[in-house]
Amino acid sequence: MLFLFLILPFDFFGQEFTPIVTQFTKKDYNASNQNWSVGQGKDGAMYFGNKDGLLQFDGSLWNIYKIPGKKIVRSLFVDKDNKIYVGSFEEFGYFEKNENGQLRYTSLSSKLKKYVMQNDEIWNILNFNGTIIFQSFNSYFIFSGGRVRGCKSSLTFLFFNNYRNKIFTNTDQYGFSYFDDIKQIFAPVPACPLKSPVISVLPFDQTHALIVTKSEGLFLYDGYNFMHFVTEADAQLKKSEINRAVISPNGLIILGTVLNGVTAINNIGQKLWTLNMSNVLQNNTVLGMYCDRDNDLWLTLNKGIALVQLNSYLSSIHSFNPSIGSVYSLSNDARNLYIGTNQGLYKAVLNPNKKCIQNIKRESGIKGQVWSLNHFGKQQFCGNNDQTYDVSSGKSLLMSPVKGGMCMKEGVIHGKDVLVQGTYTKLCIYEKKKGMWVFSHTLDGFVNPIRYIEIDYTGTIWASHSHQGLYAIQLTPDLKKIDHITTYKSLDRKHKNPINIFSINNRVVFTDSTAFYTFDDIKKKIVLYDELNKNLGNFSRSYKVCHFKSNLYWFIHDGEAALVQINARNIKFLDVVQYGLFLNQAVEDYQNVIPISDSECLFTLENGLALYRIDSLYRRQSDTLLQMKYIQTVDAKLKKVAFLPLISESRPKTPYSRNNIIFTVAYPRYTHLKNICFRYKLIGFDKAWSVPTASSCKEYRSLSYGKYKLMVEVMTISGIRLSQVSYSFEVIPPFYWSPIAKILYFILLILLIYGYRMYIPRLSQIKKEKSRIRKEEIRKKEVEKEVQQSIAIENTKLESILSEKSKELAASALAIIKKNEILIRIKEEVIAQKKALGSQYPNKYYDRLIRLVDENLSTEDDWIAFQSNYDQVHENFFQNLHKKYPDLTANDLRLCAYLRLNLSSKDIAHLMNISTKGVEVGRYRIRKKLGLPSDKNLTEFMIEFK
Predict the structure, then answer these.
(1) Separation between Cα atoms, residue 882 and residue 890, nearest integer Å
(2) Number of C-alpha atoms within 13 angstroms, CB side, residue 281?
(3) Buried b (16+ CB within 10 A) or exposed e, 586-610
(4) How far is CA 554 from CA 118, 342, 354, 546, in A?
(5) Lowest mean pLDDT among 39-53, 131-145, 315-329, 820-834
(6) Which of 376, 350, 380, 378 is nearest to 363 (CA)?
(7) Measured in whole angstroms, how far is the alpha carbon of residue 913 from the centre of its chain?
(8) At residue 10, does pLDDT exceed 50?
(9) Across 150-162, average pLDDT
(10) Which residues 6+ apart lie within 8 Å of 320 measured at CB?
(11) In the 8-state DSSP scheme, what is residue 108?
């Protein structure tokens, strides 16, 4: 069974071309998944009722605005004055822009009198003859003339509909009902056969309303009678539970459902397309719908937001089911559309109104990769991995046994009509026989994989290698052999990129994806095609060119394709298509755009196709203008933000403290959102335009004071300017450079000049006096210097004398010590002799000798002489010490003097004629009187004392 499935042709159900859909997720708008309602402001901005509040989208930036209590915005309505009315649970009011472009909320429910809201949730808002009505399921509130009043009803109703100055709704009690102006009550519509709740009442034509029911389908109502409006989608809609309905400006009936997304029907009941989770939507539950001023449809979903481009020149088959693989090439004739993919060749029927592709069948005889499909005369050639076939007869007729038919071109060589085919290996030549192309031969001596071929007017075959290089091939007159071949490894001798070849207005051009080149017949070499490169801008780096018709060509570059009109005198961009618009991207490096009529062409995609209608380019679209959204001024120190007015009779001004300015612009056009960029130039600051950027915000920091004018342009990525806006403002000078400060500075300058002139003589005298004083000071300094030098000399002499005195003092002390030592030894010897001799040593001699020794041991005269010399050397040491420490005795002072000379205890004992122990006792006594701590050395203290 599986084998039969693979080899037998299989038929698909019709595949619809659906509008291009742009999806917005919660990551895009940074709010809740759930969106309930949608509307458009007078300035073009889109507004959405979101679970987190009111969402605003200007084409670049999303903003969320909360309402009191941070409640869900269930419903919204934008009136002609650009007030955005919103409804929520027990809360309703409106947002309005102030002069700075900021939305401010005004609550209307808080102004209710004699009415207490109890579980009232506003599900619908409408304008009825200038009166705004906020509607819940069993009450409604009227806002008119600045007053708000509430009306409670005993009925339970669905959405109010304003049709021909009457309010229609569906009530649980009466079914389809209308509001009786005379009785001021809701009454049942007479003779109504409808059993399913009515969701919407829409103007269908001059005499009929379209009645949309929840599950019973559509009806036409002329005010008296109901007639079932039969559509191709009736069976589907009855199961889907219709929730919302609109009729677009171009007459499409669009039905949003709870279970199956959104379906479009034309005015004769033909189903055009359905969008749901099986193709492009994030969710099947449509909670709100709105057609904007460009006739594009916005859907608010239980999960996310979708933009359906009804007015677009593009529609697509999102995905073939079952898959047919990656589409590489297309061709069509009056009967069939041929689709070449990596899985083989498919044939289909393109519906006459191009709304779908039907009867898709796989050609069982052609398997694997199809590289090229070409239509020459009545023949359809299919270049396959294995062979090349003619499939025009309904059968796969083998044309060439050479594998891998990559490309094929028709031309004239040596006066003969030929087809030249590039393959994996050889160049194949086809010739006409009896009006039909047949394979003739291959060219010997040439074995290369060829991706592209062109034949110029001289009969030269230009063939590009699949990976690198280019060949210019000239054949012999019999076309059997190669007469001459020229090989080009690179177009500019720098880049060794693959080289692709195309024909533009019968002129062969080459591209290596960096620039376009052509062959100069005079110079006989490849040169830059300057005119084309200059006018194409970014598209000069295109790697593929597809002919549409006449002088229209598609240039494909980096995920986008530009439709360009090329005339002898000018090159004009007509449109740019972003491949990112298609959910299924193109086959990378093998994008193809194939014309199927004078006004239509097909884009090849991964398991899909996109239909382009050039007549859609000339449909009326709103004149979208670039506009200032708001202008923030920032105080960098205080981190405070203020806004400049968007409209002002005089030039807006900002203080110098807020000279950091952020400009935010908006371009509320929502098709090709990824194909626009902005550039900025601040006159008075910038010398040139900024580099184009996707950001709609521009910040200037620390502007100096002065007058400025910001210029902003919005353009396509390819460089086509769409709109511009400007804004003039002024940064006020800081106080220290304000006009008042300048006047003060001028007055001060005058006073300074006057004072200078008045006091010049005085200044001169002061200068002279200062000079005299300075000279006097110099003279005094010189005298003082001489005196100081004399004093220094004198001090040096005194220091020398003192040094000598100190030496003499030390020598004197040492002499006394030496004398005393000798006398003591003599005395000790005498005492020893007395002890030894006893009575033999007469006492009178002994006593006289001892007295004589004692009289010469450190006499008072010696001390007085020592003290006098000591004071001269040590600057009244005794006086100062006694003055500061009056408790010191004479012996204490003597001991202190000896300590200052740094004498040992033994020497001091000899000088004072006491024992060494007595010296230690004396030292202890002095420490106590001086109050020295235990860690302080007494000798050091005496040396340091002054």
Answers:
(1) 9
(2) 27
(3) bbeeebbbbbbeeebbbbbbbbbbb
(4) 62, 23, 21, 5
(5) 820-834
(6) 380
(7) 102
(8) no
(9) 92
(10) 12, 15, 360, 607, 608
(11) S
Cross-strand bridge partners of residue 646: none
The answer to whether residue 3 scores a pLDDT higher than 60 is no
Structure tokens at 489: 């490894």
Q: Cα(289)–Cα(280) distance, rounded to whole angstroms?
A: 16
Instruction: Give the Cα separation of 891 and 492 in Å (integer).
Output: 115
The helices-and-strands tally (H runs, E runs) of the chain is: 13, 66
Model pLDDT, residue 683:
96
Q: Count Cβ atoms below 10 Å from residue 187 Cβ, excluding itself.
A: 12
> What is the rounded average pLDDT for all residues in the chain?
88
Both tokens of residue 151? 């009306």
Phi-psi region of 330 (alpha: psi -120 to 50; beta: other; left: phi over 0): beta
Judge contact between 399 and 439, C-beta under 8 A: yes
Which of 396, 445, 397, 405 has the alpha carbon at shortest distance from 424?
A: 405
**CB-facing half-sphere around the CA of 118: CA atoms within 13 A:** 6
Q: SS3 helix, strand, coil % of the chain, rounded to 5?
A: 25, 40, 35
Q: 781: which 2 tokens? A: 């300094």
The residue behind tokens 């009925």 is: 155
Residue 640's Cβ-count burial label (10 Å; 0-12, 13-18, 19+) is exposed
Distance (Å, whole) CA 213 – CA 207:
19
Give the number of other Cβ atoms within 10 Å of residue 531's Cβ: 13
pTM: 0.75
Q: Which of 123-137, 227-241, 791-805 has the lowest mean pLDDT?
A: 791-805
864-894: buried (b, 16+ CB within 10 Å) or exposed (e) per residue? Answer: eebbebbeebbeebbeebbeebeebeeebbb
Structure tokens at 642: 């203020």
Residue written as tokens 């969710």? 283
